[in-house]
Amino acid sequence: MIESFAIKKFIINYFIEHSQEDIDKMVLNIHRHLLRGFLMNEVVYNMKSGEYGRISRVGGARYGVVIQSKDGGHEKDCHFSDLARRDEVSASGVKGYLLGITMETPFGRVLKENAFGSIKDSSGVMKCKVPQNQCYEGTRPLRDSQKSLDREKTQGMWPSAENAGDRGAMERQDDKANAVEVEKNGLTEDIDIDSILKLRDDQILRIPGLERPDIESTMKILGVLVGFRSFFDIERIDVKELAGVIIDPLYESDIVCKTHERLIEMLKAEIDNIGMDVFIENSKPCIALVFECVCSSKDKKQDDLESIEEPRQVLEKKQWKADLEKFIKETSSQAGIDISHIVPCIFAKDRPLSKEEIRSRLVLLELLLNMFFTTEPFREVVSEKMETSKELERRKRELQARLRKPILALDSEASLDTDKRSEVKKELIDTMEKIFQLPTNIRIGEIDGIRFLNLNRKIYAAKERDYYLMSRDALLRLCKKYNDRSKSKRNVLVSIEQYMEILQNPL
């Protein structure tokens, strides 16, 4: 368990700035940094004098350490080799703390409300910032391959060179054990998930008018709208319908209007509640990314952007569009980052949109959603849904336990018991359906770099930045043939099996 306030503060700061990283890679980088030195305000032990003190100055391999005594505090100049941590920090300890202060949501891993309460001390409390993985990532470079990530994860768990031989031996033993188990089950050829799913280029989700990054953004937006359908008061929508309303020159469909109106209303209320300064502090990283993704390329793509800044004809503005224009101008002015010149993309046009206008609409909508993610109402809704999920999961286990009981032997009793079992099974299916529809279950899980998403009673596989609509046959084949002893991967397969069981219509 991590006790040091300084280390907790460092971990939270690192998460805020790097939360787009895989959590195991985060742990690796944090642990490596802690092995290399001490942190400001960290309590350390001077091995020469036998005294405890607090780091007050950092300068290369030398540290200023304030030693407290009856006569008051005095600073000593100490070398790195003279100092030791009061409490050693392991990689598993870092990961445990990270898992404790964050929660997985359909929109990435986010900080829990009480995360900042865990680092209160005499030096004050950190202010909340929005984690970067909640922000638009359209132009960010792709992650390293899963293979290199796995290698880094392993190295992170074994930071000292003296354990390298043991690590290699253990890896070889694991490989042999897996190979034996695969061969025993006759699965040697199909253990690779790509060969099981048989993902082909002609199966990649493609939408006329949208490029690859646009489709990725549309899928992210769809996940939010599906998960919070009641919040936005919209009907069921699929990815192609959403793409259609995005590229519609008028941009005035019922879904578009309701979504923007609700977001603007809620964000204004949040500003009234917490103040503009705090709101801007929370939202500034997302505003900066919008500038980086769209606005900073203005000089390179001046010809394309002229169609946004000076459209041939701007038709009558809806009220929400005027409100959004004012909101973006105010917030970008307060943040000191001018993104206001992408706003005209939302106005009705009398012509097809340019590629830049389509991209700008997606970026702007995603910005509003990212701002939504920083608000208290969002965290309250997610927490409420997670509690609902726990209750439904508990009920599901109870019903499954009742179904595992044997049927009575006598004919009359057996008939009655069968009827009861039928009722229990129906309730179980209904319970699983409710679980299936929760926004907390949009992301089913990940296997070997392929993420599985549950959107509108359909399951998609996401590989890097491409999306594939999964057929029932492909999913059944995966559950039957994929063999892995990892608990997390087995849980993903169990979830997929359960989802297929309650889907009434073919995928």
Q: What series of H and E elements makes up the topology?
A: HHEEEEEHEEHHHHHHHHHHHHHEEEEHH
Number of strands: 11
Sheet bearing the most strands, described?
A: 5 strands, antiparallel
Provide the gyration radius in Å. Answer: 27 Å
| Beta-strand percent range | 5-15%
Global morphology:
globular
Low-pLDDT stretches: 121-130, 132-190, 299-314
Oligomerization state: single chain
What is the first-to-last residue Cα distance?
45 Å
The total number of structural domains is 3
- Helical segment count: 18
User: Share of helix among residues?
Assistant: 40-55%
Which structural class do you get from the secondary structure elements? alpha+beta
Strands of the widest sheet, in order across it, are: 4-3-2-1-5
Q: What is the overall pLDDT average?
A: 77
Could you explain the architecture of this structure?
The protein is an alpha+beta fold. The protein has three domains: 5-134, Roll (SH3 type barrels); 212-374, no CATH class; 378-502, no CATH class. It has helices at residues 5-18, 23-36, 91-101, 146-157, 164-184, 193-197, 212-227, 229-232, 239-247, 254-274, 276-293, 302-309, 319-335, 355-373, 376-403, 411-437, 472-481, 487-502, and strands spanning 43-46, 51-59, 62-69, 72-79, 83-85, 102-105, 108-111, 443-447, 450-455, 458-463, 466-469. It starts with a helix and ends in a 5-residue tail after the last helix. Residues 140-154, 164-173 have a biased composition (Basic and acidic residues). Residues 136-173 are annotated as: Disordered. This is DUF5097 domain-containing protein. Residues 1-119 form the DUF5097 domain.
